[in-house]
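Propose amino acids for all 451 sites.
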């Protein structure tokens, strides 16, 4: 039977070095709060429950995370007395009795499910405590993993370490996994007799051994445990996340000619055989279907780009932009909350908002759907095979029929029936020989001024 698993996310930190009104663990990486990245990785490692430990007045953390995490419980640690004390704030969740308990920090968003899975495997094999270690370039500040005869015997915090222990390069990454039946007796035995006067979760190593339990250290890549303390760290973590995402999409069959210039959101979905040209930004909620091409300098959010469709260069797709099979949205076009039908073309300098465009319609350059009157938004419907001449203003609510034709420069305020041609502009008038007369008059006026 599968082992049950609770993940505790410590999120009580003030994060003062972020210099932010926003609590640290809510700062987004790829648009998702850091703590939610940790929860996602835990879920992918088979953890079915999340307990978040928040600081005093962690209402903001709670309300944001409640929105993105399913079924998380929240526990308040009113005073920050150390990592063991923080975990014990979630006692109520721990008492429910899980086989495995993962303890994670809310500010290490790059942790991968594989690392958590490895830790869980060691618990399943009989360990009481699993420590995730790593080898940083500079171990200053980290807890050192003290080993004897290949076994982990203690974790010594930097401040408490002897010179000999400080020379150890294998460090505590912060992530620990506990056998669910042992975590409470172990952490309840932790004392605060150290340089900082805190209850250290890391003392669990010695306590577990004292109880005859097995303690193991596993090693993870530095990336997985890298924590965010400053905005500089945050930017570095974002860059690492983006690099991983690019690699993932490339290996899944997405072509990118300059991947370093393409930026993804945590939820971006792209099918194989999509081509993304340089300098493209994906905001939240974008799906791109196979065969589509996203050309340079395009910005997409809340959009679905259908099979074989083409976007850009310099296009902006806003929430609700849905492009059907082989639809085209070209340069300097903005599309919002609009269905662009199969093979329809919106190629140049156009705004389409609150609209439906039928299959194979052609929207001429400079067309604007006038969807907003300052109070309400109104719908523009354009039928299949319709042709909208350049520089037309379609004043919504309005419907252009199937196969209808709108003359260039029209201001369309009433519905156009199917197959009709609409002229919504002043009729052109030509005055023969007028140009030379006009020039003669203008010259005379200029000469008179010179005196
Ligand atoms: C901790 C580890 C150290 C490890 C390092 C890795 C302990 C005692 N030490 O040290 O071995 O090398 O992480 O980064 O665990 N927190 C609370 N409540 C508290 C105290 C801490 O929620 O009362 C949270 C913090 O917000 C933070 C995390 O726990 O997210 C770690 O605490 P911190 O004080 O930063 O521990 P370190 O000294 O970095
Ligand atoms: Ca820390």
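Proposal:
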């Amino acid at each position: 039977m599968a082992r049950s698993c609770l993940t505790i996310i410590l999120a009580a930190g003030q994060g003062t070095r972020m210099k932010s009104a926003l609590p640290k663990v809510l700062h987004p990486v790829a648009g998702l709060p850091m703590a939610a990245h940790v929860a996602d990785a835990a879920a992918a490692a088979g953890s079915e429950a999340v307990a978040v430990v928040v600081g005093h007045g962690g209402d903001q953390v709670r309300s944001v995370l409640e929105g993105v995490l399913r079924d998380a419980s929240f526990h308040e640690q009113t005073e920050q007395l150390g990592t063991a004390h923080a975990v014990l704030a979630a006692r109520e969740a721990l008492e429910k009795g899980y086989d495995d308990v993962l303890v994670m920090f809310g500010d290490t968003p790059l942790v991968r499910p594989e690392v958590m899975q490895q830790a869980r495997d060691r618990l399943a094999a009989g360990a009481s405590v699993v420590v995730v270690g790593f080898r940083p370039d500079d171990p200053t500040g980290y807890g050192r993993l003290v080993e004897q005869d290949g076994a982990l015997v203690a974790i010594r915090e930097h401040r408490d370490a002897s010179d000999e222990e400080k020379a150890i390069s294998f460090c505590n990454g912060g992530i620990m996994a506990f056998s669910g039946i042992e975590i409470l007796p172990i952490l309840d035995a932790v004392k605060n007799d150290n340089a900082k006067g805190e209850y250290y979760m890391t003392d669990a190593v010695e306590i577990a051994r004292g109880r005859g339990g097995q303690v193991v250290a596993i090693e993870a890549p530095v990336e997985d445990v890298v924590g965010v303390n400053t905005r500089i760290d945050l930017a570095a973590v974002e860059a690492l996340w983006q690099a991983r995402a690019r690699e993932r999409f490339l290996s899944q069959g997405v072509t990118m000619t300059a991947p370093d210039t393409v930026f993804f959101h945590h939820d971006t979905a792209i099918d194989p055989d999509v081509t993304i040209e340089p300098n493209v930004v994906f905001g939240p909620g974008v799906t791109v279907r196979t065969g589509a091409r996203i050309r340079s300098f395009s910005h997409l959010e809340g959009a679905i780009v259908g099979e074989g469709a083409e976007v850009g260069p310099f296009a902006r797709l806003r929430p609700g932009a849905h492009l059907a099979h082989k639809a085209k949205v070209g340069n300097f076009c903005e599309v919002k909350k609009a269905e662009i039908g199969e093979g329809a073309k919106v190629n140049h300098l156009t705004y389409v908002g609150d609209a439906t465009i039928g299959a194979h319609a052609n929207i001429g350059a400079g067309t604007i759907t006038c969807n907003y009157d300052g109070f309400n938004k109104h719908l523009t419907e354009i039928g299949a095979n319709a042709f909208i001449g350049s520089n037309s203003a379609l004043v919504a609510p309005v419907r252009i029929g199937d196969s209808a034709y709108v003359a260039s420069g029209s201001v369309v305020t009433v519905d156009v029936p199917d197959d009709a041609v609409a002229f919504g502009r002043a009729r052109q008038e030509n005055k023969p020989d007028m140009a030379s007369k006009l020039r003669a008059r203008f010259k005379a006026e200029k000469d008179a001024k010179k005196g």
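The pocket of calcium ion (ligand 2) is lined by residues 227 (CB under 6 Å). The longest helix spans residues 231-251.
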